[in-house]
């Protein structure tokens, strides 16, 4: 049995990415913990240093699943030896909507931005749900550790992580705790201009319970709960859920 001192760090320390985290250790179905060093979530990998690349090589990460849009990937590309990249593009919309609001002369306050973020999360489990279905298809075939990410590793990635954890039987309370960990570790890549409301900036670059709740409320209201959603919208039937558990949960 692994001693407490031997439990790996959840946050992987990298210079070029601040939100690279291990999903291992969370208790899932039948109290079985997720295997450590198999599933990682992250912000984008376009700023990795040579030392960072060595860390990923030591972790054995063999594939990345990138939820960034086309322009986001072009702005911060990356190539890592031995790492297969898979684009699962979900184009960003919130910054564009913020620009439109300011252009119309409306105040860009924290409540306004939070509303935009909640709308985003609703579309992630609606319009863009097929991308998460593709992720699960890959997870069911992966033989080596993988990482999935977007730009900040908090919204598109946050919903993906939540769905993976729920599929493995992790309680919603724990799923939310993992989601909110971004607020402790993520460092935004730019300093906002002085004319932006600090509360609005925090609403954009941080995470909030109401964001993930907005997505999960859709899952409850339109599908009857996470498991029904995973089955109907993601295509994760009982057999596929069992295969997922065999791959990513430690033995009882």
Straight-line N-to-C gap: 12 Å
Uncertain segments are: 1-5
Q: Please give the count of helices.
A: 12
Determine Rg (CA atoms, Å).
18 Å
How many beta strands in the DSSP annotation?
Answer: 5
Helix content: 40-55%
- Could you give the order of the helices and strands? EEHEHEHHHEHHHHHHH
Instruction: Give the helix/strand class.
Output: alpha/beta
Range of strand content: 5-15%
Order of strands across the main sheet: 1-2-5-3-4
Query: Biggest sheet, open or closed, and with what strands and sense?
Result: 5 strands, mixed
Mean pLDDT level? 94
Shape descriptor reads: globular
Write structural notes for this entry.
The chain is α/β, with parallel strands linked by helices. The chain has a 5-stranded mixed sheet with strand order 1-2-5-3-4, with helices on one face. Helix 2 links the parallel strand 3 and strand 4. The chain is globular and about 55 Å long. The N terminus is likely disordered.
Brief digest:
With 252 residues, the chain is of the alpha/beta class. 48% of the residues lie in helices and 7% in strands.
């Amino acid at each position: 049995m692994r001693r407490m001192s031997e439990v790996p760090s959840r946050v992987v320390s990298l210079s070029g990415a601040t939100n690279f985290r291990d999903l291992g250790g969370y208790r899932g179905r039948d109290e079985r913990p997720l295997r450590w060093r198999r599933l990682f979530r992250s912000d984008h990998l376009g700023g990795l240093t040579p030392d960072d690349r060595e860390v990923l090589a030591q972790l054995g990460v063999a594939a990345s699943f990138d939820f960034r849009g086309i322009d986001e990937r072009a702005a911060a590309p990356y190539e890592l030896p031995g790492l297969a990249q898979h684009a699962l593009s979900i184009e960003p919309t919130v910054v564009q909507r913020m620009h439109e609001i300011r252009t119309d002369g409306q105040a860009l306050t924290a409540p306004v931005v939070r509303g935009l973020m909640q709308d985003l999360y609703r579309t992630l489990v609606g319009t863009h749900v097929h991308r998460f279905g593709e992720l699960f298809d890959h997870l069911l075939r992966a033989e080596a550790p993988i990482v999935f990410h977007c730009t900040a590793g908090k919204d598109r990635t946050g919903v993906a992580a939540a769905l993976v954890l729920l599929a493995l039987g992790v309680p919603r309370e724990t799923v939310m705790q993992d989601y909110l960990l971004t607020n402790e570790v993520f460092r935004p890549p730019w300093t906002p201009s002085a004319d932006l409301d600090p509360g609005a900036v925090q609403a954009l670059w941080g995470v909030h319970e109401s964001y993930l709740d907005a997505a999960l409320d859709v899952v409850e209201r339109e599908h009857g709960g996470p498991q029904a959603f995973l089955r109907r919208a993601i295509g994760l039937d009982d057999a596929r859920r069992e295969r997922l558990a065999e791959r990513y949960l430690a033995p009882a």
